[in-house]
């Protein structure tokens, strides 16, 4: 089986959860099938319109595919920005199309009280309508797609990393801290986390907050931290590679993910798999594996005082925290076992190919 995979992010140079997901997925599938990943060119240009950027990137992917002279059995597109290339290649090559919807633009922007980009809504609709089968990573996303699409939607979560540490990780922090990482964008909820932490540190004055990532909201977070008198207590770090993330996870008191919109929650999954006490917001893809005070802590971060009280109690109750950490680790390893997820993808690919009327 030969799979043509389309993505805006390269799996071997991940910059977000999408890239990490692809890296793990491809690593697990490669022993069983052939996968060729096509991404836009690494060249950077300045575009007057967002539509021009999407058009150029998709044109580049189409060129790469048509010039490779390889025969494929199926196209697997990731996210709506690959929709123009996926739709064109499906028709041009006569191949069935599976599409993973990693998030919905309309829902993401609604969570931040922003208007969705009209062109993103068009590409989203194009990919949904063009796909022979849709894949999502959580039941939260399935419910959203069931309303938006009248076709089969299959839930296959992102596989756990199942990585073993290569020797002991050296300590680089000599202080107690909460840790969070991800893109610095409004829907990730870091602004609300800063407000919660401002209250929490009054109870635990030796506690720090480490935020790692990159994105357009960084400067606003730095200004908010300063206005809350947290400049000496909050540490902003750039995008971290996976080993560095595991290092900080191994040292933190708790990992915290306060997203307003989270289709799956790969960062929380990684934290729980490492056996770290993990706090997440109460909605989104977290709900599939984060059960309050059993496998994780679910928090309403919009209620800053209540959230701070809850985190304070858990940080002080070491016995309860230990039970939650161990149960969370087992939950992720059980539900997101790479062997089971690999088998689910192999079955889905075979089904889509066999059911295709154009292949």
From TrEMBL:
Protein name listed in UniProt: Glycosyltransferase family 4 protein
Enzyme Commission number(s): 2.4.-.-
Keywords from the UniProt entry: Glycosyltransferase, Transferase
SUPFAM superfamilies referenced in this protein's UniProt entry, alphabetically: UDP-Glycosyltransferase/glycogen phosphorylase
Enzyme class: transferase
Keyword Translocase applies: no
Family per record: Belongs to the glycosyltransferase group 1 family. Glycosyltransferase 4 subfamily.
High-level lineage: Bacteria, Bacillati, Bacillota, Bacilli, Bacillales
PANTHER family: GLYCOSYLTRANSFERASE, SPORE COAT PROTEIN SA
Domain Glycosyl transferase family: 162-330
UniProt domain Glycosyltransferase subfamily 4-like N-terminal: residue ranges: 17-159
Top-level taxon of origin: Bacteria
GO molecular function, one term: glycosyltransferase activity
């Amino acid at each position: 089986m030969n799979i043509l995979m389309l993505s805006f992010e390269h799996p071997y140079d991940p910059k977000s959860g999408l890239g990490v997901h692809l890296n793990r997925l491809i690593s697990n599938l490669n022993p069983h099938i052939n996968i060729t990943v096509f991404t836009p060119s690494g060249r950077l240009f300045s575009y007057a319109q967002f539509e021009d950027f999407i058009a150029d990137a998709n044109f580049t992917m189409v060129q790469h595919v048509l010039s490779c002279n390889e025969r494929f059995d199926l196209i697997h597109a990731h996210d709506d920005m690959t929709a123009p290339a996926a739709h064109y290649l499906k028709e041009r090559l006569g191949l069935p199309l599976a599409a993973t919807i990693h998030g919905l633009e309309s829902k993401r922007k609604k969570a931040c009280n922003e208007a969705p980009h009209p062109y993103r809504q068009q590409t989203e609709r194009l990919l949904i309508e063009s796909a022979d089968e849709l894949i999502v990573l959580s039941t939260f996303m399935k419910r959203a797609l069931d309303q938006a699409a009248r076709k089969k939607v299959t839930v296959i979560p992102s596989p756990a990393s199942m990585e073993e540490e290569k020797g002991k990780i050296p300590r680089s922090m000599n202080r107690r801290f909460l840790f969070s990482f991800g893109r610095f964008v409004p829907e990730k909820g870091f602004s609300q986390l800063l407000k919660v932490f401002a209250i929490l540190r009054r109870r635990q004055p030796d506690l720090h907050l480490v935020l790692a990532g990159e994105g357009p909201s960084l400067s606003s977070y730095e200004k908010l931290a300063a206005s809350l008198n947290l400049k000496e207590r909050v540490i902003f770090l750039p995008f971290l590679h996976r080993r560095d993330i595991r290092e900080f996870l191994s040292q933190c008191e708790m990992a915290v993910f306060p997203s307003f919109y989270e289709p799956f929650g790969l960062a929380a999954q990684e934290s729980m798999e490492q056996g770290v006490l993990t706090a997440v917001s109460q909605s989104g893809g977290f709900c599939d594996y984060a059960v309050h005070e059993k496998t994780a802590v679910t928090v309403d971060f919009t209620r800053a005082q209540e959230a701070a009280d809850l985190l304070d109690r858990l940080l002080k109750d070491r016995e309860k925290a230990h039970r939650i950490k161990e149960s969370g680790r087992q939950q992720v390893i059980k539900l997101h076992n790479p062997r089971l997820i690999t088998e689910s993808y192999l079955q889905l690919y075979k089904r889509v190919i066999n059911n295709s009327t154009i292949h």
